[in-house]
Fold:
Amino acid sequence: MQNSDMQTVTDGPYLAGQMMDRPLTISSIMAYAADVHPTGRITSATVEGGRHSYTYREAWARIAQLAGALKSMGIGPGDRVATLAWNGYRHFELYYAVAGIGAVCHTINPRLFPDQIAWIMSHAGDRALFYDLTFAPLVAELGPRMPEGLTQVFLSDEAHRPEGAPPEVRAYEALLDAQPATFDWPEVPEEAAAALCYTSGTTGDPKGALYSHRSTVLHAMSAVLGVPQGFGAGRAILPVVPLFHVNAWGLPYACPLSGTDLVFPGPHLDGASLFDLMAETGVTNAWGVPTVWAGLIEEMSRRDAKPDALEMLLIGGSAVSTAMIERLEDFDIRTVHGWGMTEMSPIGTCTRPLAEGAGRAARIDNAIPQGKRLFGLEMKIVGDDGTPQPHDGVARGELLVRGPAVVNGYFNAPEASRLAFDADGWFRTGDVATIDAAGQLRIVDRTKDLIKSGGEWISSLELENLALAHPSVANAAAIAVPDAKWDERPLLVVVPADPGTGVDTDALLDHMRAHLAKWQVPDQVVVADALPMTATGKISKKDLRSRIADGG
Ligand code: AMP
Structure:
């Protein structure tokens, strides 16, 4: 795609620079952290129970042992090594050891249906699978549907061998014990694949984003630059965003690179567990999707306190409601709103800090849009005919991106790859957005979620944001329903904040009418106990639409 159009220095009238061509590799990040940030810590809530804590230098030694173990298992360059695991130190070690020997760490989302997991493993051609104890029953269920000859390793010691696991299934700790704490790391070319993650595939088959060493290192450097208030020695980040989906938004790379401590929550992602872990480990900021933070906010409200050191949440994956930003401000917690995609490694944009002394209202306004682009990423919005639209904060269009951390195709999927780019090689995000003169991105909708009523577009995100500002509403989703006169009309589904009192739908609509043109106001409000969610913690509008169409 766009790479083939790129000029090299020998093509043109340029004078070649005389600098060394040293590869940007993933192992160089941890080698650097072990050297420069040796006392930086990784603390994990473990699957076995309890906590594990060690330094970046100690982690690097175990990563070397794991690399030796992988080699002894016959894993080599280009091989895909699958993981089914929570956020924990052993999963982190796999990230570095697998990529470090030139193989590919294929993280799998355990929340997918077993059939989807089997499909993904076979499409990826996985040679080995490392899994947390939690997922032993899932692995047993997958059984013969997994690729033939797959080497299996459970992420614990012999004492925790899962019941029924055949003897050829290895214990992770036993593999490491047999290896020295140093490894002769190969010099992997920076263009080599390092990690593989499949999109959740809301339409068609899941598609694999195959990250390279170079894209990963550049993304990590841009993330550190883009969120200066998040990273640095003395700070600790808790990724709730999973290591099994888009590399936990790059945190396993950006944290060691910047000397930031990491705190992994393991399997316990409820508000109370997160609160306790944050309070105990001095977490300064935490990253995840809005649904997770709703749980933490509930817990903070119950205790009327926040985890002491918590200063900021980075929230992305879905739009953050104004109500959530305000509630966090009540606890003196700042919001950094991020937007991105699996295909973008994933961070594209995020809220930038305001000057010292900015007040609450200014901070809230600043966090409502999806923020400004990270260094290296370029963005354009285009009309239906592909014409670029002005960056004036008003013109809306489909958002397209390009950059060194954006895919240039999908893994072994030529047809999907062909459809994903415009004629100039820009990647189609499928999001509809505006960009203002200061570079602020505002996502209006997904192209397929927009509601078109009488020829006019209605933003489902705007309707949801307004509904969430009403105190009786805990969660909301707006979808289009067919209409004989207007083609489509908006229907709003809401989950009550208090199931006992429910939602007064007339009062809710009055509240919304005050902020909307008449034709934008939903015709119908349905009150539901819960909304269907995807495997990555987003509202599944596809499932909601079929539920509503079926009369549910
Ligand atoms: P995924 O590849 O699963 O991470 O999903 C990427 C999609 O999630 C994007 O194309 C957006 O539609 C949506 N998304 C991610 N972050 C945001 C955000 N901050 N606001 C609105 N939508 C978002």
The pocket of adenosine monophosphate is lined by residues 199-200, 246, 316-319, 337-342, 346, 370, 429-431, 443, 446, 536 (CB under 6 Å). The CA atoms of residues 145 and 435 lie 46 Å apart. The mean pLDDT is 95. The chain is about 30% helix and 25% strand.
